[in-house]
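Team,

Forwarding the record for the chain on the shared tracking sheet. I've put the sequence and predicted structure together so nobody has to dig through attachments.
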Amino acid sequence: MKNDIRKEFLRKRLNLDVSLYEKYNQVIYEKVLEFLSNVEFNSIAMYYPFKKEVDLLKLVGVLKDKDILFPKVIGNNMIFVKINSFSDFKKGKFGIMEPSGGPYGKEIDVYLIPGVAFDKKLYRLGYGGGFFDKYFSKQRTGLKVGIAFDFQIIDKLLVFDYDIKMDKIITEKRIIEGD
């Protein structure tokens, strides 16, 4: 079931018209900026967009006074690494751009998290590797914000005990918040 949903939503995202992709990216970027302006934070973890995920890389130039981190896969685990510039990146294990360097030694305040799909109860469906779920099973602090296009939101995902829940989800049409 999860694999069928994953395939369907990846296909939808990859087939998104370029002009709509750019338009929705800009709207989501502005919503994320507005959201961050109301949050006190020193560090933020984000992601390098892959397979037409929402592109928030412009945040790197705007949040110069913050520690900005990106995920890196090592074996079966994921760490977050602080970056100084885009020259810190190279292709990683799954073809996703990853930073060089070691794990960030402090707590991370805000996480911007991509997904293949999310549900209205704030659960996330990723690519199936479980990297975010494993990471957040050990790391319980920090505000988890799912980032997606609105067509990636479904009523209900099949959820297991290890699946992580977001604190909110930001799309081009709405912000979905927890109870």
